[in-house]
Amino acid sequence: MDALHYHQATKHSFNRFARSLGYLDWATQPDPFRRYTGAPVLPLPRDSVAGDRPYASLYACETAPVPFDDRSIAELLRCSMGLSAWKQYRQTRWALRVNPSSGNLHPTEAYLVHRGAVCHYAVREHALEQRAQLDPAAWQAFSGGREGVLVALTSIFWREAWKYGERAFRYCQHDTGHAIAALRLAASMLGWRLTLLPRWSDASLSALLGLDRDADFADAEREEPECIAVVTGGDVTPWVSAHPEPLVDAARRASWSGRANRLSAGHVPWPIIDEAAAATRYPGTMPSNVTPTPSRPANEGHAGGISRERDSQTRSVNDPRSRPAREVILRRRSAVAFDAQSGLARDYFLSMLARLRPGAPPWDAIDWPPQVNLVLFIHRVEDTTPGVYAYLRDAAVHDDWRAAMRPEFLWEPVADGLFLLFPSDVAFTANRISCDQEIAADGFLSLGMIASLEPPLRERGEWFYRRLFWECGMIGQVLYLEAEAAGGRGTGIGCFYDDAVHELLGLSDERWQSLYHFSMGVPVEDTRLTTDPGYPWEAEG
Fold this sequence. Notes:
29% of the residues lie in helices and 22% in strands. The protein contains 17 helices and 22 strands. It has a seven-stranded antiparallel beta sheet, with helices on both faces. It has a seven-stranded antiparallel beta sheet with strand order 17-18-16-15-19-21-20, sandwiched between helices. A hairpin with an 8-residue loop joins strand 15 (372-378) and strand 16 (387-391). The longest helix has 22 residues, at 168-189.
């Protein structure tokens, strides 16, 4: 399979990294903002909507829905795909976004379809660029008059490949998963539902968004369709079962505006990325069961917080369940270093893991059962022995994992789904397998996301390769917010020595593969940097 070939070819090892340029060509650094020159620009409202709703409500599906209007739709985009801050060091200034991205390169673009208008979200301006207005009859035929919007995501592979070379396709899929979860949780804050629409093939999505219009891109970097979702305050079932044909036909007949801007002056081709993309495009399906899994709140556990080893006192923090959801969402950052001394309260640690179980948002946005389980390297969690642990998001894999992994692992039950495999100081091990990055050893914990790889690809098709990474990105997004709510920070780790992880665990074939790593702790802030709000109108005073 081409997907498996790509996966093997882009592994890092102790004696060879996956192929990349090997240096950063600053002359071709991609513009982080896509624009469509000539498209009508529709400024979005700037109001804060539902800003007082508590963080824990994101996972409970009990929030009363706010009305669908321009203010709330703008808030959905602002709290999922918008800018969170601007950083500056001397003369260099760069933006951070609500949705995380490998290397802060942001290959993911967002589109909105509302009442037949196909719009691109211009992040820096917090505005919509209207690319086309579809026949109202087509929107009526598709929506049945129900209130809701469609949100679609695309990837610009070059943005990641500029820095990471052949491994960039993986990272683009991580970022799609982060964005799916960010959108789902922003929708939850507004009391809305969001779910992916499985009937839409990548070809249909490309037509709807105008991505297949060669003249509109000319010498600009192309975008790859990833997924489309409905956002609604009502039942998602009719939207899931609705046939894409009315909108696709209308898009092909519509008049389009705008031409994509060129992001880089030059490019380095990576044919293996193009091959992987072609092999993993989604053909669309007729859903056999359009009744989504009912959402239920995850176990919230104890409020928990951060502790400091140096004085054995628990630092006083606000109950993370009561912090405003909007505040946590917009304050999320990726840590670059941890203090190597703070600890995480055990109850909060277990509550955090419970957020990763299917049922509650964001897991009701996807229609497949868990394929990704965790191996954790615990460093500083209160009343928890340091060591290697397994956390099973799907209890059914217990026997398979135990048989596949090292026979000397203990598999000692610790809590629901959590098992101690090997007690030890694992700081050096975590650092070493995560490309010798100290951030994997200096926090509360780090972890590897271990996916069932070959079996679902053979059963479902190679297109499912992307979705395995999406699931990892969704896990990462929840962990980012959980770390922020607890007063810490998280960071995704895309660089790790793939087969060294597998050897450590005793995994010897492609049934189980590590797809993404993550760490969290108390960050060490770089005081040389200045920080400004994501948008000038949000500055205090």
